[in-house]
Fold these 2 entries.
Entry 1:
Amino acid sequence: MIHSLFLINSSGDIFLEKHWKSVVSRSVCDYFFEAQERATEAENVPPVIPTPHHYLLSVYRHKIFFVAVIQTEVPPLFVIEFLHRVVDTFQDYFGVCSEPVIKDNVVVVYEVLEEMLDNGFPLATESNILKELIKPPTILRTVVNTITGSTNVGDQLPTGQLSVVPWRRTGVKYTNNEAYFDVIEEIDAIIDKSGSTITAEIQGVIDACVKLTGMPDLTLSFMNPRLLDDVSFHPCVRFKRWESERILSFIPPDGNFRLLSYHVSAQNLVAIPVYVKHNISFRDSSSLGRFEITVGPKQTMGKTIEGVTVTSQLPRGVLNMSLVPSQGAHTFDPVTKMLSWDVGKINPQKLPSLKGTMSLQAGASKPDENPTINLQFKIQQLAISGLKVNRLDMYGEKYKPFKGIKYMTKAGKFQVRT
Amino acid sequence: MTDSKYFTTTKKGEIFELKAELNSDKKEKKKEAVKKVIASMTVGKDVSALFPDVVNCMQTDNLELKKLVYLYLMNYAKSQPDMAIMAVNTFVKDCEDPNPLIRALAVRTMGCIRVDKITEYLCEPLRKCLKDEDPYVRKTAAVCVAKLHDINAQLVEDQGFLDTLKDLISDSNPMVVANAVAALSEIAESHPSSNLLDLNPQSINKLLTALNECTEWGQIFILDCLANYTPKDDREAQSICERVTPRLSHANSAVVLSAVKVLMKFMEMLSKDLDYYGTLLKKLAPPLVTLLSAEPELQYVALRNINLIVQKRPEVLKHEMKVFFVKYNDPIYVKLEKLDIMIRLASQANIAQVLAELKEYATEVDVDFVRKAVRAIGRCAIKVEQSAERCVSTLLDLIQTKVNYVVQEAIVVIKDIFRKYPNKYESVIATLCENLDSLDEPEARAAMIWIVGEYAERIDNADELLESFLEGFHDESTQVQLQLLTAIVKLFLKKPTETQELVQQVLSLATQDSDNPDLRDRGYIYWRLLSTDPVAAKEVVLAEKPLISEETDLIEPTLLDELICYIGTLASVYHKPPSAFVEGGRGVVHKSLPPRTASSESTESPETAPAGAPPGEQLDTVPTQGDLLGDLLNLDLGPPVSGPPLATSAVQMGAVDLLGGGLDSLMGDEPEGIGAPSFVAPPAAAVPANLGAPMGSGLSDLFDLTSGVGTLSGSYVAPKAVWLPAMKAKGLEISGTFTRQAGSISMDLQLTNKALQVMTDFAIQFNRNSFGLAPAAPLQVHAPLSPTQTVEISLPLSTAGSVMKTEPLNSLQVAVKNNIDVFYFSTLYPLHILFVEDGKMDRQVFLATWKDIPNENEAQFQIRDCPLNAEAVSSRLQSSSIFTVARRNVEGQDMLYQSLKLTNGIWVLAELRIQPGNPSFTLSLKCRAPEVSQHVYQAYETILKN
């Protein structure tokens, strides 16, 4: 099971260590540093590193490496999932997860880690339960604690810990009862030179924010549940009911949680809402190249595309660029060769474009690789797969909750090859 | 007000100041001080000097303070064991606290203090907590047993905690069950032989119920535990699969992958024609695809596992090629894995798409990735024949880019394409030669030299090209030197007139000026070959090479099957069995997939059954080895066809091996084993008449059970057991059994090739044994055994071999040879194959002999649970040549007097007492050689119970 955890920042300092079994010397991290040095970028450090006596499994998030040390054969996915859960918990507790914040709250961090694992076995990883055991720090509470001498460690057994609904605490009370659901879809796509789609898929999630009194039992039904054939549920969802009736029936956790995530990969179901026209050319003889891109809407079901940004990693041979955008602002970093263009909204009447020239190293041959264009955008009030919630009902409680559903489509890894 | 204040220090000395604060009267100050201590501890500062002061703060009703002190204790108790004892009292007291949270906390912390003295005090509180009324305490205590076991295993066993833990598997609370399973699995890992997780249908059912209700982490433990179970038949396997499938929709990827493991393993038992099998296959794809949209670290582990899954069951993901297309901002480790899987999934249907992608990747920035992409194009060409031409032209396009590493990589793969499709794409050689000068990597240079040598007759200036390489011969790497030597010899054999000088030059460079033994030896071989017999040299050097196939990068089937059992573990990430890399090899049990046939014809055979040992341990239970093995090793295992030998076989073997650079094969032909027993066997009557016997045996069993009368004249034949597992014999699996029919003994063998290469030249030899068993004919395998093929052979045996008493009496040591190696195994034969058909004694003689044999030679045995009556027994035994001489009825008991004779003339006399209504028989045996009695008894057992 998980032996120890080291937190390492990007400059290679170990700034926190926690051991759940015997103490492992921090020198074990030297193997990690070696791998880190070999990798060109922090993202490329391999997640599983063997050492003579241990294995190091790591995740890289918020510019921090979370390195777990294990000694025996343990499912690596279990370790990596757990590490991500640790990061999520920190984020939940402190708002952001960064080195200074962790250092500022080191005792809470330590207490939380101690509650999450026992002898390397996960103990409590639901943030609902953790928060009952160890209260997250707030300015008010710190002041109150200092005055009254009380603590931020709960002395009651968390109520949810052993019930049949371990994810929900009992005795929840709200004056305003509300349940909000966000249907968020991200499009991952690769578009080739000629504009045809190579792959496209939708990663969708339904995130919920439920603040309801008591033990509500909710059902959520869809207009077109057929779309959801590849889904992962929060443990609260009753799987049998979904299998037989295609209805989500669940007792929700209190607060924010991810109800389900789904995946739509059938190509004909994935509409591509934008297109990019590009003309990037290098010539052998001249030290100037032409650069021209235009972004336009495609299948948007009448909605506006907003928050558009275009980024592209240009070949090393490009020295500088002189470009004129029709709207928005652009920057080019001559060191990293990263071009980024903040477009904003797309107005279908007047398509945004970015035109100009690139200056290349004099005398050098034309670059071998073509830059790939990365696209970010948002479309409000639209789930691009067409998924629609039919109705949300509540049983088990008497009051009438306030309900709301929001849809949004975003670009995930949306790449256009040139 | 943040915790960072705890890190500030003052000039006076931090430790000193903390000490003062810890001993303060004010609660608040104390707590702050402990927090400072903990903060220092987390960043790795040594604050162990404060031990007594911190422990003093332990007795408090403030839970936070208590927890903090506990944290400190866990870290430093080891370095201050005597001081740690001070804390014991508080722990014991806390274990009785009315608040379950405190009880659990105390037992949890105690387990983390790795001090022997403390563990002694831990036992009583732990025992109580394991039976606590609160499930939260029970589940914490379950984990504590694992902790204690890690510190002092003996103590845990002595105190009986393991049994208590096993009881917790039936606990009413699913969380407790999950933790008990997790703890037991961890303990079992350090005790591979102990039968801790004794799984049976009842406990499986409990686990499956708990699976639905426990936390995600508990589900992982339970699923991993389920994967170790082998269902008794396909119906059970299916019902488990049905209950595990909902886990595929879990949000936690580790749960998903553990569920995939269980399904992949149990699927092996389901028949492919089953509707359910198809449904299951379809259900596996979406969750695997979903794993690829997770964080990159998770993707990496998932991809390594998918790599195994597509090798085992390509049909699962054959339509999902596109999800493996590489995004340019994927981390490099994800990119490389995706590429690997793309090639595994490449087929005629999607090759166009794959090639377009690969070409795109070959223009990316990352050098490692580009190289692999180019290599992948070559692998596609080899894998999908129809695409070869397209691949070659893509590679030529890439060579035109003149990017140095792309060109080199392309040349390496084109060499492989030439080896797969000889004489097809030689038109590109000209283009390749243009790039000769830009090659600076040994592998690419060696590949180019090979191409030039192989196609020397079509390249006009081949001699010039090779000569240009020769100039810097000594600066080249070994790989290039060897290749250059071979290429020039090839050139010489093709164009002898113009290149005499060149070949002289290279031979002298290799033999006289080099101190690399490989190079020198290869040089000498060529030299001698060329000087003694140029024709033979031509045959050797220019021999046709075996084609390469895409399977070269596949994992060996036996290893793959083992790895499938380890899906989701580190082994699956490294594609090595745990035994190859887990620390100290402890806790490593070889796992294997369950066999598909689910009927009761299990692998357990009567040879091993009497000892009660599971089949896997058979090889260990037979005491062999030592000097006996030495005998075997001395035996000559020459090829069975030893016709007009040496010259031709030398040539063939040399030809295969020259490129690999081995001298050994040539040397191996020296007739070294001249004095050893000859292997030439009597030519005629090699195939015995009883080939049908093994097939019929199952049927005869059925008849025996229903009618109680042996209807077949042959003796009982045990089902085949695995004698030599593929793992121990480089992919050759041998299973077999012994039969006796119409007076002749034979050994029915089943040879399975689980390696990736063709097996030929089989031969078999026995070591000397108690009854002189020896093969009566050579092992006849008519055709070479290609991969995954199985062949059934019946090997007639004689009892005319040389005799040496073995221990146990009926053990037989066998050596089997093929073109790969010689393998040894040892097995036990049932004694009844040695019972001859004329073993019926005359009544009078029987009586006389019985009296004549001294009483101390009499041995008595019990045969239990045999439901047959006297007639059935008698007739069944008779079919195995145990003859009833007389029958008497004494006081309601049936007394059978029986005789049998062994092949070496030993008579065995028996008295069998059968009481009606009592399934236990009493068998008395009398024999002049009493050591056979035990085995005769076993033969009785075997015959009567099957």
Entry 2:
Amino acid sequence: MALSVDSALYRWQRLGAKSAPQTVSESTPLLFSVRDRLKLNLNKWRIVFSNNGRQQRGWDQASRFYSGNKIQTTKYTWLTFLPKNLFKQFHRLANLYFLFLVVLNWFPQMEVFHREITMIPLIVVLLASMIKDAIEDYKKYQFDKKINSSKSRVYDKKDHAYVEKCWKDVRVGDFVQLQCNETIPADILLLYSSDQNGICHLETANLDGETNLKQRRVVMGFSSQNTSFEPEFFQNTIICEMPNNDLNKFKGYMEQPNHERIGFNIENLLLRGCTIRNTEVAIGIVIYAGHETKAMLNNNGPRYKRSKIERRMNVDIFLCVGLLFTMCLVGSIGHGIWSGSFPEHPPYDVPDENGNFLSPVLSGFYMFLTMIILLQVLIPISLYVSIELVKLGQVFLIHNDIDLYDEEADLPIQCRALNITEDLGQIQYIFSDKTGTLTENKMVFRRCTVDGHEFSHQENAKRLETHKELDLEDEDFAKLQQFTLPQMNIERPATYQRTMRPLRRSQSARAHFQGHTRSRSLGRRDSNQSQVAFSSTIEKDVTPDSRLLRRVREAALRTENLSPFIHMKTATSFTDFFLALAICNTVVVSTTTEPRQRVTVPPPIKPSGITLEKIHQIFQRLKLVSLSQSFSSSQSSSDLGASFSAKNTEEHLATLDCCDNDDSCCDSSRGAGLQDKSSTDFGSASLDEVFQSVTHGTLPTDFCYEAESPDEAALVYAAQAYSFTLVSRTPEQVTVRLPQGTLLTFDILYTLGFDSVRKRMSVVVRHPLTKEIIVYTKGADSVIMDLLEDPADTNAERRMKRIKDKTQKHLDYYARDGLRTLCIAKKVLSEDDFQKWANFRQEAEAAIDNRDELLMETAQHLETKLTLLGATGIEDRLQDGVPDTIAALREAGIQIWVLTGDKQETAVNIAYSCKLLDQRDTVFTINTENKETCESKLFGFIPTSLPASEIPGPEFGLVIDGRTLDIILQGGLEERFLELARLCRSVLCCRSTPLQKSIVVKLVRRQLKVMTLSIGDGANDVSMIQAADVGIGISGQEGMQAVMASDFAISRFKHLKKLLLVHGHWCYARLAKMVIYFFYKNVCYVNLLFWYQFFCGFSGNTMIDYWQMIFFNLFFTSLPPLVFGVLDRDVSAETLLSLPELYKNGQNSEIYKLSTFIITMLDAFYQSLVCFFVPYLAYKDSDIDVFSFGNPINTVSLLTIILHQALEMKTWTLFHWITIIGSVVIYLTFSLIYNAVCVACNPPTDPYWIMEKQLSEPAFYLVCLITPAIALLPRFEYFIFALRGTFGASLLLKAQQLDKLPKGQRDCEIQKLRSRKQATSDAPVASAAPNEDLDQRNSHFLSSGIASPGQDSGNLTKGKAKNFNCGSHRRSVSAVTL
Amino acid sequence: GGGAVKTRKPDNTAFKQQRLPAWQPILTAGTVLPAFFIIGLIFIPIGIGIFVTSNNIREYEIDYTGIEPSSPCNKCLNVSWDSTPPCTCTINFTLEHSFESNVFMYYGLSNFYQNHRRYVKSRDDSQLNGDNSSLLNPSKECEPYRTNEDKPIAPCGAIANSMFNDTLELYHVENDTRTAITLIKKGIAWWTDKNVKFRNPTGDGNNLTALFQGTTKPVNWPKPVYMLDSEPDNNGFINEDFIVWMRTAALPTFRKLYRLIERKSNLQPTLQAGKYSLDITYNYPVHSFDGRKRMILSTISWMGGKNPFLGIAYITVGSICFFLGVVLLIIHHKYGNRNTSADIPN
């Protein structure tokens, strides 16, 4: 229901009417055009007028409408702080409860405490939060101020020049001039760039942490205006979408005065917070400012999750409320009966102010409310505050763990969610991404197949082996690096000095816990390694396969020597293959010598004057270099010779893309005539040309490739190894140097970017020699294989089929080897077809609605009938310590699922290598597209495997792919699937989409009611991370999206081990015990007051002074549980790591569950009974007064409560001692001082001299000695018997005992313990029994297979039976893929 | 500087890495055994000591409420606050054993809830502390015993208003001759109460009548506060009977110190065994709320009055601990080594 134009117009008029009486005038010509041509909805679109005086009226109206660039992240101002903050705080239920009590206490009928005293807890809590908020807000205010007052050059319409303005004064519609390394003040539409191609480079590290540069383009039509941009003449009106937080989407168009529209998208938008790089000057118009910028809209605070313990706790709090209600009811009924039992009013029944007495019923009702006030502490409100404090402490300690610190990236663990630390100790299911999480996501080119021929690249494999060894010896590695890359070391620090400052500043503008940027520290020795994205030496250096190299050279030579139009099919396949590798990507080239200087054109040709001797010298050098590289010298020199001798041919053939020093570029490849011209023009320079290219060839480190995905970079480096060097890339052109040194410049006609739906990318280029329009496509094999052309003539068809089959075979082999596979294909388009398609594409690009769908459609339209060139296998190395970590987590009882988008074979292979699957495991594989078969399979597996699960025999693994998952999820087979999955040790979901990942996580979490953890590193894992109870992001190679969405961000997978096994265990144990203790403490203490009601006519009186009572919770007993919650350590980290089984303690919620809660409650009741009745019996029928009676009770309960805590503590550090003893000392000191000083300061009940008097009486000490002893005796017993158990000592206790042993002995004991356990678990495997069992199961399978419909299940069982009969070491039950 | 490169590497300190030196006690039979024996060995002697001490205390108690029709005080059962002339009665009793040391004379009340919430609060401590403004303008807490006929009540409040006002006199009866026993009425209140917490209002001169000018007596009182006693240092707010009453009892059955009987000489017991009579001026009505009134004579020990509970408790707990110790010892010897595995010493 889009608003009509008229209503939009009306809105503008109304806005305008406020400022000026005359409404629509000639100054807003746009509106007429809008009326004529557009259906514009102002709720959907934003209209931006330029602030240059030309659209003054429009701008005036709009600027009022759009937010300015001033940011205010603060919540309060000086004036609004108090009311706003209070309002916010009273949204919390706890505070409302307090308030309710305060109000209740205000009524004289129910006044238990002084009105003021009841307010103390509330005021303390409010004040504490208020101070915290105020400090936070002030910090934010200062940040804002700093940001707001940073300077930027903005066009001033009066001065007709750019003037310096504060960021906060920048308005929508302003023209902003940006210099290199400047931070962008707002979201700006790029209108001009000093770059002649209209490109502006951005570093988005502040936004998403990615350090590789991104390209932004000047809006189409403006790029041609090479002359400097004059804001004064800008007359266009910009229409774009409303502000949103999608960093990757933006669309809109520019309306020219002649009603022509120019579309633009995210490619043209400079985002606030990013830094301009490599571009001298850029000018743009502000589209979104301030809080409407995409960066600010993305700026969310830390996440708030509720942990399992807290959920459990909330239930128990309701139990407490029930308890409170019961106690109040007892009090109220008791009081009613008591006061009704007197025939006349006794002297101690005091009437109200007017001398009237209440009826027993009414006074009973009042007593109910009074009791609520009295027993308020039963609801442990302080628990919330304490838990928050404890979690802060826990987070601090986790954050500071040196074992979770990554040296390489200089990153400690980041705890982004502050309140789910203990969830780490209760994880039952881990969902992990594979790439970048289990593996390093450092892609290394391993092997390739071209034209059906496989090239194994054994030299490369060898090199990688040695590299691994080097990797272990860090120091040596560093030296080696310095040795091989001297110039990098010299250059880099300087670069960094320059780039660091603005980077840091804007980084601080982000919210506190988002500061997970990857800015590297200065001068670190490994900084040069990881500085440029995806270009560590291991990825860059690819040792070419000698066989392939020879083939490539031959092919290249043939192409050069023969006419380019007569193709040898194989020869072009090779060149095409490598050309595709070099071209078909979005890799950006930069040199290493200049600070991140982008290479957009081949280096300028130096003036001639180079003698032949010099060239000879160069060749000498070249030889040496080639020698040092691993291919043979003879070969390289001959190649070079060939390329040199071929220079004359080149003159005719090669398109020489060249530039003069004065920047007037001759765009040679635009037309044939131009080509002729250039070849004649630069014929004389051809020698230098060769010289140039050759020198470049000798120094492969000259270029740095910055890719969006590491695969791309790996492929480009691979192409480079075969001398197909990507030299430069602009949006329009890409230049590749061929092995001969020829520079080929392709016109890029279109780039169809990669997306996860198509799973492929394509570039459409015009070949400079043949003028053919070629589509190079690169993508997942499953997709590409389906798009291949079926050639008409049978001969070619057979050939193609052979190649396809062979390649598929190789691909399968690669996948089995754990390599990531990509297929490379090409297609030659006829000019007509291309024109047709191009028109279609243009239409799609100009479309506003469903543009994305249209673009997708056009892309799919193009990527058909491809010719297969070959395929590549890229290795993604397993991260350090992954198998070990997985084994440990597995031992800890955690089920691990891997959800990956990778191919099944690749994933299975990685799963074996990281010990996710064991060779002994029985692996079920389900690949089907048919619901029935899927169901029958699930059905077939389950019943037979059920009995097996009871015996610790061979374990099960489940492999499932995305399509099958879809069927399961849509077909209502979830339960069956989970039933099966639960039996499996590990589950592998391949080829799954991000959506599927999150659905699976949610499914498991909801249906099985288990604690889940998701870990991933890429944007595709975000939904999965968010779906799980605990989301962990790996700050790896793929940007920051995962980290931003996560609760904890780590840098290596192996850190998960300590995070869960040690910190998780500790946090859970600490917090669970603390929560239980808090319940105990409050119930125990409050019950003392309750028991007293039976002796004071249920009048709601207390025997303890109010202050001492309030301070009891606030000061005297608050610190020990806090210290306990932060620092207690039941078992040492070493033991926890070496005995992962200890994790099960938290997993099964053994510390805090209903039974322990009830036991603790009963214990609390018992202890409070003891603490009340021992003093009662001791002082019964004596002349004891109220406070003298309460004082020993208070004291003994304090001692009991503190000693109870002491019993819980497993470690006594200095802090523990100080707080335990300190609490008692503080109590005594306070009581002594208070009782001595306060004569009449607390009317009407002053506890004057009580403590002093009692301390002089032996009876007091006797009571204080025996009461805790009686109170804690059962607990003592409980501890001993529960921990020892009649069934033998628990593992936890054993571990605690182990901790006390000296290190060597402890290791020895742990070894023994583990080996004993292994022996018991392995025993059945060793025996013959399970094998029989398996056979039996087989027959089950068979019978179920026959019964179930569909022939595949028959296949399945056959396959299985065969597998079993073979008795292969890997007993994999693999179903036949459909 | 080049060396001071700031990294985000956490400090490798014992605290941050959670490696603080710590004592790690483990509760096992082995470690707890000694504790049980020690507790047992300490508690049992203490318990015996307390028990013996408590048993050595002499105590004698008479209920003079007069519920039973045979009681001499039965006639006074229905007195009211302002009955004139006061009802008197005499109760005779016999002490079987002599009281050797100083004797404390208590009056005891039962079912009297001096700890009722509103009752406890119905007082003005600053008035009792001698604050002149509070004297004439007592705290609101005293309502409805704050003013009477527009005059402030001194002392105000329900506690003061309901002050115990029976008079007890003790006679030793020997051969039908009644010898009055000297009852000392000073020194029964806490020293700090008498000297710090309770003070008469200050002003010109020491004439209490003048100082309490403008106030009126509590409703139930026969006489104003400045006529409680003849001696000036025991009159007004610092009258010790008054102070004792104002220290509200913790439990509904309580006793309050009434008088002291000092031992005269080392040769004679304070109260020798024999016949005694107690003269009671019965003013205080308790019948309406089923209250009881008692007179208690008691000697005291180092740990207060007679109370066998603590002694028994100590002996019991001590025994239990000892017993548990033995049980644990047996468990430890029989099963301990097997369970915790011989190779892990405790």
